[in-house]
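ugh ok fine here u go
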Amino acid sequence: MAKEIERKFLVTGDSYKAMAVRVHRVAQCYLSRRIDAVVRVRIKDSAAFLTVKGRNSGMVRSEWEYSVPLADAEAMMRDCREGNVIEKTRYIVPFGGFDWEVDEFHGHHNGLVVAEIELPDTTIAPPLPPFVGAEVTGDERYYNSNL
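structure:
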């Protein structure tokens, strides 16, 4: 079982765009949004994934992710989703020895920009890039499954 250790921040400004080394188009939706387990299907560029995540405990949760055929992911998004499809542009920004993921949301959540960093350990305190604002780790309003 994999553990995801992640911190999440609101973003101020757009300096992350010039700092980005990669940019991806992401569409995702949830097949189940239970508090104990969410099931997500995601298409990132032309690759597709099915992800199961356990209940959050602060910044730590269990996570399993599997590649799935693109056509299957598209069908799940069309036929099986709960709620809306979330569309975003993801910027990969290296800073302080870590790769930050900055998600610029579109559609229903246009204008929302959130930065996330996955950490190898809960005791790590990474340096914060200049575009990072208030921390929203653990704030359920910013869980993708709630958007």
